[in-house]
Structure formats: structure tokens, C-alpha cells
Structure prediction request, 56 residues.
Amino acid sequence: FNKEAGKVVDECKMDVVYLYPPQPPSPVPEESEEGSSPRASSQLDNGGCSSSTYDS
Prediction:
């Protein structure tokens, strides 16, 4: 676009964050292995993503 005389144009940069939808549970039941950490499943609950809201 062209800036017209007498008009104020503010330029802003925006960040784009792509969030993947949560994965459906596996149809095959998984057996827990001895010695495995229970934290592994909790890390997958949020999809490993974090999001932030930007106020303008």
C-alpha cells in the first residue's frame, strides 16, 4: 500500500507461533516398562508446546 499525505502509518512486527493439535491416544495399549519414569507420559500431555499471548 502507499502512504497518503497526512495519514499516519505505524509499522509493527508480529511473531507467529504454530501449535500442533494434540495427538489422539494410541489404539494399541502400551505396557509400562519396569524402571521407566512416569514423567515421560506427563511431558507428552501438553504436546511439548507452550504458548504466550501478546497484548498490543
Q: What stands out?
A: The CA atoms of residues 21 and 27 lie 18 Å apart.
